[in-house]
Automatic annotation (TrEMBL):
Keywords: Membrane, Transmembrane, Transmembrane helix. The chain crosses the membrane at residues 240-258. This is Diiron oxygenase. InterPro entries: AurF/CmlI, RNR-like. It comes from the Bacteria. It comes from Actinomadura luzonensis.
Amino acid sequence: MTTAPSSVTARERDEQVAGRSAYRAVIERLSKASVDKHWEPYRDIPWDDPDFRVDPADPRWELPEVDKLGGHPWYRSRPAETRAAIGLWRVATAMKIGLQFENLLKRGLLNYAYRLPNGSPEFRYVYHETIEEGHHGMMFQEFVNRTGMPIRGMPGPLSVVAQVAPWIPLISTELFFVFVLGGEDPIDHVQRKVLKDGRAHHPLEETIMRIHIAEEARHISFARHYLRNRVPRMPAYRRFLLGVAAPLVLGVMARIMLAPPGAMIRHFRIPPNVVADVYLRNDEAKREIRDSVGKTRELCAELGLIGPLTRRIWRAMGIWAEPRA
């Protein structure tokens, strides 16, 4: 049994990969790490341990401060059992959307790998990542099942539109890996904040988050290094098109990952004015959206994908922030 990481795992380091040999060395290191340190959801998570039982009334499910609804007077005035149930619904929905995103991601990765030539170092790593994402989907779905809640995940129309994502690598692998970062960075950002908030967390949720963070660090690193290696080699017109598409993809993905689930709002009859106060008119919530794509925004700036025109798109999508000095 491989125990879950005991502390918040450090992010994979970025390296300069201008040379093909340096890039290849990074991919081979990530592949080796996937062999040396990985987790099996039905081996390494004690699902049937009494301490891991999912009780919807457990106060540890109450929303943390990172979710702005948790501090609203309406939420604080609900009975303790209702506050816990809302928090559990929120966690379960995030996991359901996460497994749906990773389903799209796995199909896209396999479409990408299908065309890779013999000897490509990316092939092995992409299969490592696909296997790990499959494990994540299993542990997310198992968690959702154990809540007993009618969790749907993505809204139906959005789920239908999302089916185009696995085909993006056939058009642009660079855009596909921007899409990958658009789904993985916001969740990684929130999970790291949750684990550092000093609260007592349910051991099942905490174990799943720690495993997810540890393995997603490699997935995020691969996407970043792939873009560092490929984007500078793209023709100018394709870099421009990628620069236009990137903020559109990232803005939409961040909201999908972090927005309150409509089914939860309806189920618990959360008043529209509360939703507006917490998520629509709340500067902290807007900043959370911006911050969740901060590292990808910095990468896009580094790669020359942000100019006077594309910066306007970042602002229009609500995800622009001035680069750090």
